[in-house]
Amino acid sequence: MRWAIVGFGSISKNKFLPALNEAGGTLAAIVTGRPESVRNEFERDVKVIDKVEDLENIDIVYIATPNSLHKEQTIICAKKNINVFCEKPVGMNAQEAQEMAKFCDRSGVKLGIAHMGRFNSYNVLARDILRSGEIGKVGIVKASFSFVNVERNKWRYDPALSGGGAIMDIGIHLINSLRFILGDDVVEISAINENLEYPVDQNAAAIMKFANGSLALVDCSFDTYGSVSFEFRGDKGMMYVLDTLFQEYKGRIIVAKNGSFELRDSIDKNPYVLEIEDMEKAVKTQSKPATDGWEAFKDMKIVDAWYESSKTLKMIKVN
Description:
The chain is of the alpha/beta class. The chain contains nine helices and 15 strands. This is Gfo/Idh/MocA family oxidoreductase.
C-alpha cells in the first residue's frame, strides 16, 4: 500500500521507515517543515512536500508530529479519504480523541494508533498467561516506565504542543498495555504528579482500580533511570514482565509459583513491522486496527482522569 509520513523526526526515520520497508509498504510521500533537506535523502519517486493538504494518491498516512497537530492533520487526511495511522497519544485529551474517532468513522476511513507495545511478543505472551489462569486471579499490579529525558528544550516540554509530560509520552504506553494484558478497563484513579522545574509532569504516580477489582500502582518518569516493568500478583503465583516498551524490541517474562522462578521465552518479532501489517490488514479487510480511535479514546479518558486527580488530589471515576 502507498504510505505517506507526516513529521520526519527520529521515530519516523529510525523506527517507522525501516519497519515500513521490512513490511513491504511503499513510501510515496513525506510531509515535513524542511522539505529541501529531506528531499535530498530520497529518490524522485518519493514526493517531499510541506503541507498535508497537498497529499495525493495515498492509502495510509503515518502522523508523527507534536500532539497538538494530530487532530487537525487527521481530519485533513480523512476529508481526502486517506486512512490514518497516528502516533500515540491520539490527541491532546479525550475530547479530541472522540472527535477524531467520530470524524474518521463518518468519513469511512480507518484510524489506528501506533501502540507498538501491543505487538511485543512478550506482552502478548503475558496476556495469554493471565488468560490461562496460571497465576490465578490478579489482585495487585505494578507498572513502571522511566528514562532520563535529556532533550528538555524540545516540544515535549511545551504543554501547548504536548499536552503534558511523562504521562502523555510514556504513561499512555502503560495504560494501553495494562488494558491489553489484563483485558480490563480502569474505573477509578487517584494520582499525584511532580513537575520539578519544568512546565510539564516529570514524575507521575497513580493508583488505578480496574473493573474486575484489581489495583494497579503505576508510575512514569522523565527523570529516573531507564526501566520498563510490570508485576502481576495472582492468588496462585506472580508474573514479572520486563523491558517490553522500549524502542529496541525485546522482553523478559518470569513466572513465580510454588516457591520457584521460571523464565518464559517468546519469539522476538519487530513490533513496528507488526503494527504496520495490522494497519494495512484493517484497511484491506475493513476490520479494526489493534488500537483504533475508540480504544485510544478510552486511553485518553484515563489520562484526563490522571491529570484531574493530580490537580484535585481526589479519586476520579473514569466513565
